[in-house]
Amino acid sequence: MSDASGAGRGPSSGRRARIACAIELPPDFRVEDILAFHRRDTQMLAERVEAATLHKGLAWQGLPACLTIRFAARRAEAELAIDGAAGADATGALRRMVAHMLGLTQPVEVFEQAYHAHPQLGPLIARHPGLRVPQSATPFEALSWAVTGQQISIKAALSLRRKFIQAAGLQHSGGLWCYPDAERVAALSDAALRAAGFSQGKTQTLIALSGRIAQGELPLDDWRAALPVDDMRERLLAIRGIGPWTVSYALLRGFAWLDGSLHGDVAVRRNLQALLGADEKLGEDATRQWLAPFSPWRALVAAHLWRLGA
């Protein structure tokens, strides 16, 4: 495992690239939702939020990079500083990544128009108009985070995430550690992940997942373009340690698929109980049945339930 002294950083000299783009934002865009999503780790190892600016370390074509997004009125200005060459179509790729991260590909206006008068959902929509689901920078980040967070608290998951990022050993020259790509994780040993605090089961799942992605068996970029959900679900569920909740959460956070039924999510069940005024806790079956009529928006409904009480 690389330590924080600088091992694993990008080159201290040599070629560095900077690319930039600007994206117009809709009138109801919720900047704070994006900043809050990336502010979860108070130790700011790989993400740093300052006022209306996000800095995020990530792997860009295997190289350490720092993404900066500055929010102004109706506008997001993005810059990517890469410890190396940018590669082909870098500006277009940056624009697509940022639009995805900000949830701008999600047709939330259609959902809100359809359900603004619903007796339960209508008040939630009115409280949080324009609610989008903030996205991970890459599908692999969403998948690996979903595996990391299985059956542990958010505090424990964030601690494990930090150790995972450091175990991968990719640090930008500006100081932020970078969330790794699948190829880098596939090169890690079981011992490195176990030393970072992963259970044997999660270690094996992450190694199998990253290995299949690195070998092209799970074409995440192609999937994000076409979204063949049934095929995606089948192939992911074939990996030991990945279950329906992990798939639905990863499809939501990594692919902006808004129809995953997150009936197994504890917060969704708890907040739905409060919304319905039910005296007894709602089980997974009851929550699944309540969400079912809202297809193809079930995951977006879950996102509104997450915000209940916020």
TrEMBL record:
Its EC number is 3.2.2.21. It catalyses: Hydrolysis of alkylated DNA, releasing 3-methyladenine, 3-methylguanine, 7-methylguanine and 7-methyladenine. SUPFAM superfamilies: DNA-glycosylase. The keyword DNA damage applies. It comes from the Bacteria. Residues 22-138 form the DNA-3-methyladenine glycosylase AlkA N-terminal domain. CDD domains: ENDO3c. Residues 148-310 form the HhH-GPD domain. InterPro entries: AlkA_N, AlkA_N_sf, Alkylbase_DNA_Glycosylase/TA, DNA_glycosylase, HhH-GPD_domain. Keywords: DNA damage, DNA repair. This is DNA-3-methyladenine glycosylase II. The lineage of its organism: Bacteria, Pseudomonadati, Pseudomonadota, Betaproteobacteria, Rhodocyclales.
